[in-house]
Every structure is written in C-alpha cells, then in structure tokens.
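so my prof wants the structure for this chain in the tokens format not the other one, which i didnt know existed until like an hour ago. anyway here's the sequence
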Amino acid sequence: MKRYKILFKGRVQGVGFRYTSKVIADKLNLTGTIENLYNGDVECYIQGSEQNIDKFIQDMKNQRYIRIESIDKTQVVIMEGEMSYKIIG
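here's what i got, hopefully its the right format
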C-alpha cells in the first residue's frame, strides 16, 4: 500500500478531469481526494497498490480531452481508514 500526492499540470481543468479520475480510481479500488487549484493545476492524493496507482496515472494520460503536460509525484504517509476517493470543491 502506497500513498502519493500528485500534481497534474496541463489542460486539466474544465475537461472532466476530476470526474474521470473518480471513475478510474473507483474501478481500481483506490482511495484519496482530488481538487482543482487556483493556478489551473489539479492536486490529487491517491492511495492503493503501486500497480493500480501506475495504471490510474496511465489511464488519465490516455483520456481524449485531457492533456497532461507534467506530473509531480511525491510519496506521502498512508491515510489509515480512508474508504473512498472524493472530489473536493
């Protein structure tokens, strides 16, 4: 089990990014949160198996209207008891 803070930059707001991420995270049994930042980036905390987190990122890169220009991925402390993936804001 791993947890990462991921900062997505690019065309990631106004394109269904957060909703799409929830669908993918739910399918892969991942937990965490996602929210739009004021500067146009999207911040995501994602928790689960390393393999499923990598699949989540790959699936997000392969979306039609989303264009991820860069990803900043930092491992953080696991959130014990987290049960779902939520869109914030």
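also thought this was worth mentioning. The chain has one domain: 2-83.
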